[in-house]
Design brief:
Number of strands: 2
Number of helices: 9
Distance between the termini: 39 Å
Oligomer: single chain
Structural class: mainly alpha
Shape: globular
Strand order of the largest sheet: 1-2
Order of helices and strands: HHHHEEHHHHH
Mean pLDDT: 82
Length: 221
């Protein structure tokens, strides 16, 4: 039993370092979110708007450059195959970043958000974008679930960011209820696949065949 619980820390540290380097774009997004929140705490909101927009744009462009670099490299996987970095994932990351840059421009030009404290907004925005990055590269059920939740939870707050807007608050409440129901339903489905394959890897799903113990309805054929 103790052998099963033993951890090869040298191997774990090596894999963590390699994964952190390979997931450079995601690290840039998380760092940008943290910096945006810190700027909001240190600079008055009357002066922090342009600084936050500049930091957000720099973070998005930096992540874009790193994603483009990975797009040209050979496909690889990190963290024991939980996240895959290939051209398919890199393409959608570039699309997500284009939408992020457009969102930053629209937010900066929005009169409704002008003069408000925007550090939390950009922090939530880049946290959601980081979740999207992990989601498009997920190769494991647990990774996919955590990525979807990392997108969903900041989105709940972003919908109700204007607290005085009753429609936004109502939409956020409905979004939370819908998200909670969807999360439970998704976990139930993932538990079925885990019971059939005894693994959380998406690759294990390819071994399910119509002549296996799983019914065609369960597999989705």
């Amino acid at each position: 039993m103790l052998d099963l619980l033993a951890v090869d820390w040298n191997e774990a540290i090596r894999v963590s370092k390699a994964g952190t380097v390979a997931l450079g774009p995601e690290c840039v997004l998380v760092a940008t979110a943290c910096i945006a929140i810190l700027i909001d705490l240190l600079i008055p909101k009357e002066k922090s708007g342009s600084a936050l927009a500049t930091v957000a744009m720099a973070g998005a462009i930096g992540a874009f450059a790193l994603v483009w670099r990975t797009y040209l490299l050979e496909p690889t996987s990190v963290f024991w195959g939980a996240v895959v970095i290939d051209r398919f994932a890199s393409f959608f990351k570039l699309v997500i970043l284009c939408g992020t840059v457009l969102s930053i421009v629209l937010v900066e030009e929005s009169a409704e958000l002008r003069g408000r404290s925007m550090g939390e907004f950009y922090g939530l925005l880049f946290s959601a974008v980081a979740g999207m990055f992990f989601m498009v590269g997920a190769n494991d059920m647990v990774t996919a679930f955590l990525s979807i939740e990392l997108v969903s939870v900041p989105s709940f707050a972003l919908v109700a960011y204007l607290r005085q807007d009753r429609r936004g608050t109502e939409a956020s409440l409905k979004y939370v209820l819908y998200g909670a129901f969807s999360t439970g339903l998704m976990l139930f489905g993932l538990s079925i696949f885990f019971g059939l394959t005894h693994s959380t890897s998406f690759a294990a799903l390819t071994h399910l065949a119509p002549d296996s113990k799983a019914s065609a309805l369960t597999i989705g054929f």
